[in-house]
Amino acid sequence: MTTSPSLLAAQDLHVAFPGRHGAASARAVDGVELDIGAGEIVALVGESGCGKTTLARALLGLVPPTRGRVVFRGEPLTYSSRALKAYRRRVQLILQDPTGSLNPRHTVYDAVAEGLRIHGYGGDERAAVAEALSRAGLRPPERFLLRYPHELSGGQRQRVVIAGALVLEPELLVADEPVASLDASVRGEILALLLRLRADLGLSALVVTHDLGLAWNIADRVAVMYLGRIVETGAVEQVLTAPRHPYTQALLSVLPEAPGDPVVLTGEPPDPSRIPSGCRFHARCQILAGGEAERVGVADACRSEDPEVLGGGGEAQVACHWARAGITA
């Protein structure tokens, strides 16, 4: 749980994409409140298609919100070219595929220096690039400056991408599945690097992932997203050891070390252009299907009443009628 001041916040954030041929809009982000504190690492977790990457893109200013706003250091984000350029120097993106992020014709030096050139850096470019590579764990940096991406391992390429973000001295990193394409032996090294950057530089981070194990290893706080909305949030130890939302329980049940049988959810997530009434998870909910919601008198609410949007702060919260009725797994 964080007591640090908010660095970046989503406030009543909605992002909708128009449907084709007059179809209803797809509500990819459908009312999200989320704060990221200074020096805090927040993991945003959920299955594919839940809206977490769209939320991350909206926080970066890459997708303008349909409603609501993004606030950085107390100031609403504006979408002029000049304002976005200044903002993106302070908030940097790290993508999951380092090979796709790097131009195969550019050396490591050019890849890392690109951001400096875009932002008109007036200092010693070579020294700044070498420092960023060193911070990213590529030492001595002189060994890597003239190499090309194909001459590097997957882990080294990801470190180059991280160095390209660090060279601009950002305050926050948005890492979208930062270790998903890496071998298991390298993942721990990259996660340890992100933690070290937080300790050494005071960096904040939003880590977007479907991997709850990754969230456990790196995050201070976790936000679980389903169908465009955060359904459970709180300190990572609290959420992942005592999950209250049935969706979070199902995600955790399939981890290798989880006790009991895995919860197999029926069907696919609903179409974001046709979000069901009531709790958006109720059509797949094992608690409702098993009769437990009926026994405590909340089944009708599950089907007809939309749980309120969770606040963006660090306290433990859950958007579930059953959990709020005081039932524990």
From TrEMBL:
One of its GO terms (molecular function) is ATP binding. SMART domains: AAA. It comes from the Bacteria. Residues 8-252 form the ABC transporter domain. The keyword Iron-sulfur does not apply. Keywords: ATP-binding, Nucleotide-binding, Transport. GO terms for biological process: peptide transport; transmembrane transport. InterPro entries: AAA+_ATPase, ABC_transp_ATP-bind, ABC_transporter-like_ATP-bd, ABC_transporter-like_CS, Oligopep_ABC_C, P-loop_NTPase. SUPFAM superfamilies: P-loop containing nucleoside triphosphate hydrolases. Belongs to the ABC transporter superfamily. PANTHER family: D,D-DIPEPTIDE TRANSPORT ATP-BINDING PROTEIN DDPF-RELATED (PTHR43776:SF7), TRANSPORT ATP-BINDING PROTEIN (PTHR43776). This is Peptide ABC transporter ATP-binding protein. It comes from Streptomyces dysideae. The lineage of its organism: Bacteria, Bacillati, Actinomycetota, Actinomycetes, Kitasatosporales.
